UniProtKB/TrEMBL annotation:
Keyword set, alphabetical order: Lyase, NADP
Ranges where the NAD(P)-binding domain occurs: 5-326
Protein name per Swiss-Prot or TrEMBL: GDP-mannose 4,6-dehydratase
PANTHER family named among the record's database cross-references: GDP-MANNOSE 4,6 DEHYDRATASE, GDP-MANNOSE 4,6-DEHYDRATASE
Needed co-factor(s): NADP(+)
One example GO MF annotation: NADP+ binding
Entry EC number(s): 4.2.1.47
Reactions this protein catalyses: GDP-alpha-D-mannose = GDP-4-dehydro-alpha-D-rhamnose + H2O
Role noted for this protein: Catalyzes the conversion of GDP-D-mannose to GDP-4-dehydro-6-deoxy-D-mannose.
Keyword Lyase among record annotations: yes
Alphabetized NCBIfam families for the sequence: gmd (TIGR01472)
Amino acid sequence: MKNALITGITGQDGSYLAELLLEKGYNVYGIMRRKSVVDYGNVDHIKDKINFIYADMTDVVSLIQAMKISQADEVYNLAAQSFVATSWDTPLGTADIDALGVTNMLEAIRTVKPEAHFYQASTSEMFGKVQAIPQDETTPFYPRSPYGVAKLYGHWITKNYRESYNMFACSGILFNHESERRGKEFVTRKITDAVARIKLGVQDHVELGNMDAKRDWGHSKDYVKAMWLMLQQDAPDDYVIATNETRTVREFVETAFRVAGIDVVWEGTGVDEVGKDKATGKVIVKVNPKFFRPAEVELLIGNPAKADSKLGWERQIKFPELVERMVKNDLALVEKEIKAANI
């Protein structure tokens, strides 16, 4: 029976990964930051099966202690300040967690159990202003946000420790992956939550930023399988995990409303563009410049050929099903809210 340590275990990816590892018979340890009120987040339903350790990515001593307690054979570093927009507001905090925090975790592993296998959650945001289409493991990086820059440091320090200390350290360059457990600050969940509220009459419209931004969207449940596969290989390496399909924010909006039985028609361009309910003519989508990024990432599309061939990774949940799952989940949640408010 293997021991696994997951940072960021209460988040979207951490919860799906914890479920996967528990199914495979692992002893699962999860790092949590101490708060006045304990918040198990997305692992509340399996909290009794997880060994929680209080630690912080900015405190290497606590990470060393976490390694000593868990004696982890595999370490999955999913902890991050992962909201791109916030990284402009808190660039130093983002760097402390997403960049230096990776070094702290690597040092803790090197100190306690250097033979442990390490997974670093890298991101397609490192490609930023893309230098090739589609992007793969050889594409040059050009990050366009403090988040992307911090993650790039984490990516390269992982490679450096692998080459300098012969550690089994991998980075997964994951493109956008969503799910029913995604936080509402992310545009995909913001959209599906708004669709549910508009459908059920508790919200008039949703305001979004760049409708033409293109992303490669997959489901988190598929992507955590790739993380696990990377650490089962004979040698460590880095892999792009993606769908090789790209869609605009506008397409995501259309698909989400369609799940709720609403057809969207568009009028205007740029900041004056609006989306209307085809049946009623009511404006349900507006563009708000405050949601534009200071430096936009216009297009992301990843080529997962290496992961497909070397890891045997396969994606099960396609884009339409991803959106459908998210919308139906939010419809159920909002309906529950409405019933509770009327009691």
